[in-house]
Amino acid sequence: MTDAAAAVARRWRHLDKSVFVWLLLIALLLLLVINPLARLLWASFQHPETGAFTLENYAAAYGRWRHIEALINSLVIGLAVAGLCTVFGVPMAWAVSRTDMPGKGLVWAAVLGTFIMPNYLGAVAWILMAGPNAGWLNRAYTALTGAAAGPFNVYSMTGLVLVIACYSFPYMFVFTRSALDLISSEMEDAASTLGAGALRTTLRVTLPLALPAMMGAFIVEFLEAIALFGAPALIALPARFQVMTTMLWQMFEFPPRVQVAAAYSMPLLLITVFLFWIQYRLIARKGYVALTGKGGERRLVRLGPWRWALLGYCLFVTSLSFFVPMLVVLQAAFARAWGRGFSLDNLTLRNLRFVLIDQPATRAATLNTFVYAAAASLIAVGLALAIAYIVARRLVPLGRVLTYIAMAPFVIPGIVLAIGFYAAYTAKPLVLYGTAWILILAFATRFLPIAYTNADAALRSINPELEDAARILGGGRLLALRRVVGPLLRRGLAGAFILVFIPATRELSSAIFLYTTGTQVLSVLLFDKSDEGNFEVLSSMGLILVVVTVALVLVGFRVVGRDFLLRRTAS
Amino acid sequence: MAVTRILLVAVLAVLFLVGAPGAPAVAFDGEKALHEAAKKEKELTWYTAHYNSETAAAICQGFEKKYPGVKCNYVRTTAQVAYQRLAQDQKAGIAQASVISSTDQSHYTKMKQDGWLQPYRPKNLTELVDAFRSFNDPDDLFVATAAGLVLITYNTSVVSPSEAPKKWTDLTEPKWKGKVSIGHPGFSGYVGTWVVQMRKLYGWDYFKKLELNKPRIGRSINDTVTMLNAKESIVAAGPAATTLESKSKGNPLAVVYPEDGAILMVSASAILKNAPAPNAAKLLMEYLLSREGNEVMVQQYQDPVNKHVKPMAGGKSIAEVKTIRPSAAEIEKGIPEVKEQFRETFGI
Amino acid sequence: MSRLVLTGVSRRFDAVTAVDGFSLTLAPGEFVSLLGPSGCGKTTTLRMIAGFLAPSEGTIEMDGRLISSPASTLPPEKRGMSMIFQSYAIWPNMTVEENVAFGLEVRRLPKSEIAVKVQRILDVVQMRHLGRRYPQELSGGQQQRVALARAIVVQPAVLLLDEPLSNLDANLREEMRYEIRRLHDEFQITTVYVTHDQAEAMVTSDRIAVMNQGRVEQVDEPRALYARPRTRFVAGFIGRTNLLDGLVRGAEVTFDHFAIPRSRFAEPTSLDGQVSFSLRPQSILLHRQPPPVSDRAAVIPGQIVQRAYLGEHWDYTVRPAGGPLALRVTARPHEVFEVDEKVWLELDPRQMARLQPE
């Protein structure tokens, strides 16, 4: 063998064969994320009939004032929602994490319930609570004060903001709480020895230390709000205004104008990229060194009688988001005629029976919902772990680029992603439209960033030497992953799994474009039901969704341990 | 001897004429063969906007009972969504639905134009109410299979029968300000047709006046039922069928057959050219026109299209009330126009 | 037992050169330490030997086979080596026995054989009774033993240790030093040991490679390293020392305020121009009275500037001949002098190690 041939042979022998696995996974990542986005971008410049390059889609999308108005409405709502979520979530997080407020278990359970409840179900319940003419709240108000009409009107931008905020604030709660949990009381002690009282310390020392987490959550809330479809569809139309997602929905009407929809949704991408850039600039320089993974001793702040007030606030917020809407849903689900209100002779199990037994679509949709959500979670978490591993261990050059790609779907509203998926997978060679896979992959892509953040944090908490020890003893990287890293990450990954699973069960904005008869999911079924006037059946279906999800989550708790949702690092 | 033979023949003839036991009450020519062919296809998918889910479920169940071995899967959505789904399927080259039942006439014209439909002249066409025939396609590409009324509905716990509006123009009276519920022509075929008819009767000024009453605009015509039940609105331009059905559950609702005419909605169904189950589809079309099928519809408070079937108790049959309707051509042309006008006037 | 040869190995990280031209040949079964302060490149070198990093330049060969070069590097799992990490890296999800058995399982040995080997090695490290425990239940020293057992049971070609004792307390460290050397002797494994603690290196190693800023300063046996350091850095790093700079003038080597005849040094003919020496504190004797004159020793008057009593010895700082120099002198406990007392220093120039010019 010549020298050159020997060198090549040696290089082959020396090659770590696991590199092929990494390349395969990277290819999968690119397929999931880049393909739809690229198609979307391409479609936005494509003439609908001829396929030639054109700018007329952008002209059509932004040439009408109505469309621009919808965009502005979305942005305004996004900011308002993010602000309101901060008002809801931060005090609650602080109360649960750092004070001696009683009833923390209850508050935490209610937050979890809120996280599980689909926002459009909440919207329906809210319509009953705060409809201007007959909402319960208004009727209570007029009864109490004798006024002609109550002040609450859910059919307004304020109403929509409130409804959306009610169902989005759990993110702010979880992020802020995780950060606050890591702050050692020494920080607060330092302030108090200098004479600062509890409130001033909280506002000037404690909360600012959690600022990166809160900013991250603020951006998440903003993006959620502008990308939401369910609640706006139910509330915005009767309130006589449009938002971006309802406008996009109309663009899919007869005849569907995918290209214009693509052009219309491009600016959303730009806006969110801009937001992340701002966050990076604001935060990257400052020192938040206090937040090492360990956290010092954490003492609870004593509030005295104020702790009851704080509990009251927490319960107030969770009543708005969870307890009262659930009551509404329960009442309707078990009512013969919900228009008659609550009375003993109006109770029946007929609706549940119809939904569970008589209507085959529900059973199929329920099964689909949980199977797709589970499959999507597995794919998202598995891929996220692999990519996080590749980046953390520097297995390929330009690893940072992979991180950006894995986080990119975060930046894309669900409805835009769906349009991208639609554009990518309804034409040859890869036709996934009409199969369950297009939904599963769309969900997996949509929630990949959440899975990635968790997988990355979990991975970083493991000492790389544990892997090295396995490798030097003769196991390759893959064996080390399987026998050492995998088992150690179980808890963290299970947490990531559930954080993807729950939103996937109620995901509407991407499902609405991608489902077909055989692949219906509960979210779409619920949505379709909402324009049938059959509120009893609608509530029954919603109730089933919530109950089954809660049951699955509780099972998950048993398997994983309680704290997974609130700790972002593995133990 | 000869007498016995003649008697025998006579008895046999009588028996034959009366019909052997087990023969269906009203079978159509070739039903058995079609059933056999449909059984091979095993199941069919039906996109429908004609009814609500419960009715569609009942019809499917009745169909499966009458034609065992053929499964009926329905997908109930608003007309716009049904068309959207179909359009996406066609574009992707996916054959899902075999039968489409939209409430928007313009859909059929476009589908005919795009060559999505296949012709079929149901044997049960003879059973169709004569007045509806003008809605059928001359090339047999679509056939009227559903009828409904849009009329004035109200919540009886808040509005007494004497106070209730008696004609369409009453809805614009100031006393109903903020309390009227309607649908949106951009989402619902029924609402589109209603708007076209109102425009025909009273011109677009009707809606300009209605806007002064700040109506609550939902998506589907069935949203009005929700609004009335919630007491968010107390009067509405609503569908007879869904309202009466909700009333039968015990909800405090009632209908008014307007003096200036209830809007008659005649909606067609069609078989798709790329139907995965063409024979089952034909069978469904027959069923939708058949007596059994219409009995099921009537139990769900729908109006029958079969001339031999009586409407539900408590409701009036279409023949009894004053109905008005735009022609197919008027609907066709009018709906896109009124969608624009609606957006201009109501801002949404 | 394997022969490991590093030739001109360098490693760069962006603009920083962590290891520069490292060359070393290990004889089969030899125990070599890489000794130096943090950041000197010793761990990087070790990781290159293990295969976790590829060299930017140079080659590493084992038993004549090329295993590392900038073009290609055999992955760690294919080298047949073992490594002990600073954190021990005992897997918390496995018991002691399972940890130790891991390498044997990868080598697909039959279960019965694995069981036997595991028990035997646990005996050797005296951990047999804790075989079923999980790592969290063990002390630092016990975990260290598990790491040793796990690494040795697979009979590696080369054993690599990365500062394994730095997380232990002083007593345990001493005990484990001997333990590691004992295991090396028993199994005769070629060993590379990375540490910043010179006492550890001295106790355990056949040879020590002293590293500074990526370069090897000197490779020698411990005694030679101590007695004859060749550079200022090595002299100062291994034990304490006095650094003396002098100038050769004719028959004398002149220092600051005193001189020593050239003939008294080892290799006097090689002395020329500016010279530097390392003089160990133990090599200087202190006297109250001037000692008898000899032609071997150099006697210099001086004054005690500072003193510290450490129990086992005295640490004196003495100023010779009224000059600016301050020499460290180690004296036995009964040799008590007061500060400011005038004393006589007796030193043996042959014990002064000549340092290379910088």
Describe the structure.
The complex is a heterotrimer of chains A (571), B (348) and C (358). Chain A is mainly α and 571 residues long. Chain A has a domain at 63-259 and 306-333: MetI-like fold (Orthogonal Bundle). Chain A contains 25 helices and no strands. Chain A has helices at residues 3-14, 18-44, 56-62, 65-98, 104-116, 119-130, 136-145, 157-181, 185-193, 198-209, 211-227, 230-235, 244-251, 258-284, 306-333, 350-358, 360-392, 399-407, 414-425, 436-460, 464-472, 477-506, 511-514, 522-529, 535-560. The termini of chain A are far apart. Chain B is α/β, with parallel strands linked by helices. Chain B has 2 domains: 31-147 and 267-299, Periplasmic binding protein-like II (D-Maltodextrin-Binding Protein, domain 2, 3-Layer(aba) Sandwich); 148-264 and 323-346, Periplasmic binding protein-like II (D-Maltodextrin-Binding Protein, domain 2, 3-Layer(aba) Sandwich). Helices cover 41% and strands 17% of the residues of chain B. In chain B, strands 1, 2, 3, 4, 5, 6, 7, 8, 9, 10 and 11 form an 11-stranded mixed sheet that branches. Chain B is globular, with a radius of gyration of 22 Å. Mean pLDDT of chain B is 85; it is low at 12-24. Chain C contains 8 helices and 20 strands. In chain C, 42% of the residues are buried. Chain C has 2 domains: 4-235, Rossmann fold (3-Layer(aba) Sandwich); 240-355, OB fold (Dihydrolipoamide Acetyltransferase, E2P) (Beta Barrel). Chain C is 23% helix and 34% strand. The longest helix of chain C is centred in the middle third of the chain and has 18 residues, at 170-187. Chains in contact: A-B, A-C. Chains A and B meet through helix 25 of A and helix 3, strand 2, helix 4, helix 5 and strand 7 of B.
